[in-house]
Amino acid sequence: MPASPAAQPGPSQAIRQPTQGELQQAVDELQRKAQSFSPNLKFSVDRDTGRTVVRVTDANTQEVIRQIPAEEVLQLAKELDRMQGLLFNKEA
Predict the structure, then answer these.
(1) d(CA 41, CA 4)
(2) Domain boundaries, the chain
(3) Mode of pairing for the β-strands spanning 64-68 and 52-57
(4) Which DSSP helix (H) or strand (E) runs through 14?
(5) What is the pLDDT confidence band of residue 71, given thresholds at 50, 70 and 90?
């Protein structure tokens, strides 16, 4: 069943991106709720990219077992942002 026109943004309706504060508030709420069922699950926002990061840590050592997105992906995103900024600065 197709979605109603009101449910889908049209060409004149832009999808609003959350502000950094709104994103941080949502991640903080996720963290509070996750603590009750999984204290080894950590949510945060990467400052440089604004991406939400999820980490699973070892209960005894607090060592990060798994991170999504991986640290390498965050570094790549930062580098691509930097390169994009350089490109636009040269074109301006």
Answers:
(1) 37
(2) 19-91
(3) antiparallel
(4) none
(5) very high
Task: For residues 80 and 92, give the distance between their C-alpha atoms in angstroms, rounded to a whole number.
Answer: 18
At residue 53, what are phi and psi to the nearest 5 degrees?
Answer: -120, 135
Tokens of residue 5, six digits: 């026109």
Contacts of 43 (CB under 8 A, 6+ apart): 27, 28, 30, 31, 34, 52, 53, 54
Query: Which phi and psi angles does 16 have, rounded to 5°?
Result: -80, 125
pLDDT for residue 15: 87
Maximum separation of any 2 CA atoms in the chain, in Å? 52
Tokens 């040269």 correspond to: 90
Residue 81 pLDDT: 86
